[in-house]
């Protein structure tokens, strides 16, 4: 397949390099939010693949443990909504402060995935737009160089 029929090999190299950077950024975000260990299960589970057919990049897939999304959103197993008053006043009051707010759980979202993903996708969009516009300008320039003007 020639460059004219599909995307250039440079585009595949660009997406591969971006994927490597994205995985490094995910690792940096895990470190920044102090999620897990540097050699922990979530850290090791982050892998990426570029799916292509006929020389064209179809998609980029990043896989990691589902647990990572729960940490990203601040939800998951063991996070209850609170105790119901029907269970007894002592159970209801035991896990609440003077204002009636729960103090048992203090889980917060740690947006290691969502912020990094959207930031890096925007960066890939900028890079690809620049690369494609340069390719289009080069093709137009080559086409114009092949024509001669007769007066």
Structure commentary:
This protein is mainly α and 151 residues long. The protein has two domains: 101 residues; 32 residues, no CATH class. The protein has five helices and two strands; from the N terminus they run ααββααα. A two-stranded antiparallel ribbon has the order 1-2. A hairpin with a 2-residue loop joins β1 and β2. α1 runs antiparallel to α5. The longest helix is centred in the C-terminal third of the chain and has 32 residues. It is elongated, with a radius of gyration of 25 Å.
Secondary structure tally, helices: 5
Largest sheet descriptor = 2 strands, antiparallel
Q: How much strand content do the residues show? A: 5-15%
Element-by-element helix/strand order: HHEEHHH
According to DSSP, the number of beta strands is: 2
Mean pLDDT: 82
CA radius of gyration is 25 Å
Q: Give the overall form.
A: elongated
Strand order of the largest sheet: 1-2
The helical percent reads 40-55%
Structure in a nutshell:
With 151 residues, this protein is mostly helical. The protein has helices at 9-32, 41-45, 67-73, 89-94, 114-145; strands at residues 47-53, 56-63.
Topology diagram in text:
Blueprint: H1 9-32, H2 41-45, E1 47-53, E2 56-63, H3 67-73, H4 89-94, H5 114-145
Antiparallel strand pairs: 1-2
